Amino acid sequence: MQSFSNTLFADAETEYNDARYVIFGVPFDGTTSFKAGARDAPLAVRAASYNLETYLPYYDIEMPEIGFHDMGDLYCDCLPDLVVDQVADAVSDLVKDEKIPVMIGGEHSVTIGAVQTLAPAWYVVCDAHLDMQDEFRGSPYNHDCVTARVAETVKNIILIGPRSGTREEFAAARNEYHLYTADDVQERGITAILEEVSGLIGEETVYLSIDADAVDCCLTPGLGTPEPFGLTPTDIRSVIRRIAQKNVVGFDYVEVLPNDAGQTAVVAAHLIREFIAGHFCSRQK
């Protein structure tokens, strides 16, 4: 039997009923405030995944040995509040079937629906922006309002990598949440910060969200709201490797804008695999 290419994530060959991890895309960027095009990210990230070897030496595992399935993309509505509801419904179905959702955005607003359904004790996000606006450009579900909406469900919030926001947002983040700016990561090192973060989370449930713009735009320029002086892909990998060992109930990678030479999408593909493999291997110990 010959092999044929498809539009699903590479090596996601396990049948749904047998899979522990389920990937799905949310190709929505209806509230994008600078460069549009993140709706094309799920397809681009999947395409990039076919460039990667099946073997992950860090975990000494082949991706096909892990039971994961790709459902494809949601057929998104036009308004952000409706898309949030669509994501919430999709994640609810996955939870009922005892799956770990792995979501590819799209813009960051899609995270809201997943968090609303999963209601974890902790929310960890890597992001260049604080996203704490109560509403932006007429919508409380704008991608600039993600943290504000998540905070209505989750009280324990950890922000890693922010370097953009209003004075009021930064003051509130320092007072209300656990904030580790990009400067903090540069000065203290990601390892020291993750030791602290790990202690905070303990054994409680956590949702991990990676906004691609947490990474310095000079390293991965395919971003809708690029910011320099950010984290490195290696920093993000360290976050994923450490948090994946925790009681993670959901994961997403959002805000990739595939208008570069492909480096941003391939970083995303690598890091999605890092989460799946890391979470799986930590459960085998």
Could you describe the 3D structure shown?
With 285 residues, the chain is of the alpha/beta class. The protein is 36% helix and 18% strand. The protein has nine helices and ten strands. It has helices at residues 41-49, 80-96, 110-118, 146-150, 167-176, 182-188, 190-201, 233-243, 263-284; strands at 21-26, 55-56, 61-62, 68-73, 100-105, 122-126, 156-160, 178-180, 205-211, 247-254. The strands form two sheets. An eight-stranded parallel β-sheet has the order 4-1-5-10-9-6-7-8, sandwiched between helices. The protein has a two-stranded antiparallel ribbon with strand order 2-3. Helix 8 (233-243) links the parallel strand 9 (205-211) and strand 10 (247-254). Helix 6 (182-188) packs across helix 7. The longest helix has 22 residues, at 263-284. The radius of gyration is 17 Å and the shape is globular. The termini are far apart. The model has no long low-confidence stretch (mean pLDDT 95).
Short note summarizing the structure:
With 285 residues, the chain is an alpha/beta fold. Helices cover 36% and strands 18% of the residues. Helix 1 (41-49) packs across helix 9 (263-284), helix 2 runs parallel beside helix 3 and helix 7 (190-201) runs parallel beside helix 8 (233-243).
Helix content: 25-40%
Mean pLDDT: 95
For the biggest β-sheet, the strand order reads: 4-1-5-10-9-6-7-8
Number of strands: 10
The fraction of residues assigned to DSSP E strands is: 15-25%
Query: Mind summarizing the main beta sheet?
Result: 8 strands, parallel
Shape: globular
Round the Cα radius of gyration to an integer and report it.
17 Å
Summing up helix and strand content along with how strands pair, one would put the structural category as alpha/beta
SSE string, helix = H, strand = E? EHEEEHEHEHEHEHHEHEH
Count of alpha/pi helices = 9
N-C termini distance: 36 Å
Low-confidence stretches: none
